[in-house]
Amino acid sequence: MNELLDRIDALSAELDGVLAEAFSGAVGAATDDDVLAIMGAAAGIARRAEALLCEGSGVVSQRSTDEIVADRMSARFGSVTAGELVQRVTRSTRVTANAYVRIGRLTAPRRALTGEALPARYPGLREALATGAVGVEGALAVAVPLEKARPAAGDAAVLVAEAELCTAARGDAPDAPPVVDADALREMAQVWAVFLDQDGTEPPEERAMRKRDFWIGRCRDGVVPFGGHALPEFMAELRRCIDALMSPRTARQPDGPWFAGGESGAGTELESTGSGEGGEGEGDSSGDEAAPPLDPRTVGQRRHDALWTLIHRIATSGTLPTIAGAAPTLVVHAREKDLLAGTGFTHLPGIGEPQPIDLAERIACTGRMQRVVFAENGRITSIRTTERLFNRRQRRAIEARDGTCIIPGCQVPADWCEIHHVDEHSEGGETSTDNGVPVCMFHHHWVHVCGWEIQMRLGVPYVRGPAWWDPRRRWFRASKSPLTMLDRLEIRQPLAHSRHLTLTT
C-alpha cells in the first residue's frame, strides 16, 4: 500500500481514539479555556485535512482534462466532471467539492508546454494551506477577489497582494488582527482588489438588466410566495426604506409621502441621587480573564438582541410621538454612592424588580447623567445634567473611520452601533472622535468583562483580544472601513499611475 496512505490511516486510527474520549464526556468536563483550546486544535486539523483534499482534487482535475474523454480520470471512475468525482469521494456538497477542485487547480505546481516545471499560480496560498494557516474557505477568500483583479493588475502585483494576505492569515501582518478568519480575509482581499485595479471593472450591466425580474406565485395555505432578482442599487434603496419604515409612525401624512424618521431626539438618561457635590459615577473596569466565544448566543437570543437594536434605533430616531412633552427616553434611577462603590441596585420605571448596578453604569456610558441632590428632608436642592452623547457629525465621522463594530468578527454596521467612550466619561474622557468607537449593543454590554481591550492612539482605535482568541495578546489597528483599509494600503504600497500596476516586493 502507498506509504502516504498508510500514514493517513494511522492518523485516522489515532483520531478515532481521540473522538471516543471526547464523545465520552471529556469535552463536557473541560474548563471553558480548555474547550476553546480543543476547538482551536481541531480546527487546525480540519484545515490541514482540507489542504490534503485540495491537493488531491487538483490532481484529479489535472488528470481529467484529456481531450479523449475515455482517458479522463473522472470518466474512468464513472463521473462527468472532476468535481462530481470529488463530491462522491468526499461525501460533500457539490459546492464544497467544486471549491476543493478550484483551489487545487490554483495552488498546484504547473508545467509549461515545453515540460518545464513552473510554480503554482498562488505559491503563497499553497504554503499557507500546507501549514494549516488557511482551509478551503480562507483560500477561496483570498483567491477569488485576486483572480478578478489579475487581468488589470498583472501577475506580479497579484503575487504581492497574495503574500500580504497570507502573512495576515498567519497572524504576522502589522496592520491585521492577530487571528484572522475567512470572512476577514475576504474583506482584506476585496480591499486589495480595489487597490490593484483603481479603475475597477465595468459591471456586467447588460447581463444584470436581462436577469432582473420579479414574480408572484399562487396563494397556497393562506400565503403567497414571491421572489426574483434585483439590481444592486434597487435592493440597497429598498433596504434603506425598510429600515426607515420600521418606525410605528409610518402612516401616510395628509399632504405628503411616507414619513421616515430623523436622527436626533430621544436617548437614554441616567438619574443619580446623592447628598453632596461629588463625582458622577464610574464606569466598569475591563477584565483580562478568558472569555466565552465571540458570539455564544443562541438563534433566539440573537433575534431578541436584533429586536432590541431595532427598538433602540427607533426610540432614538426622533420620529416617535412625545411622552409628557419629551421623546421616549429610558430613565434609570440609582444612588450616587452605589454608582461610585459599584454595589447596590438600580431601578427602571415600570419594572418592579431592582436591577444590578452595572446596568446604570452601561447606560451612563452612552446617555446623559442627571445628578439630583436632596436635602435631609427629601427636598430637591440641586439638578445638574451632564451631556455624554456624541452628536450626528461626530457619529458620521466615526462610522466612516471604523465601518462596523470594532470587535473582530462582528459585522454590525457602525450606524447601528452605540458610540463607546474608550476613556470613560466619568473619568475625564472627552466626547470627541478621538475617544469614541462604534460597538454593537451586545459587545457594548460585554466589552468590559470578556477580555477585549480598546485603546486610542492619536485618534485611531486599537484592539487587543482575550487570551483564548490571541495567546500573544497583541494590539492591532481596529478600523474595518474599506476606505480606511485602502488608504493604509496606498501608504504601504505606493501606486504607479499606469494602466497596468507594477509592484515590487
TrEMBL record:
SMART domains the record matches: HNHc
Coiled coil (residue ranges): none
Domain of life: Bacteria
Protein name: DUF222 domain-containing protein
Region annotation (Disordered) ranges: 251-299
InterPro entries on file: DUF222, HNH_nuc
Residues in HNH nuclease domain copies: 393-445
Species assigned in the record: Microbacterium fluvii
Matching CDD domains: HNHc
A Pfam family this chain is assigned to: DUF222
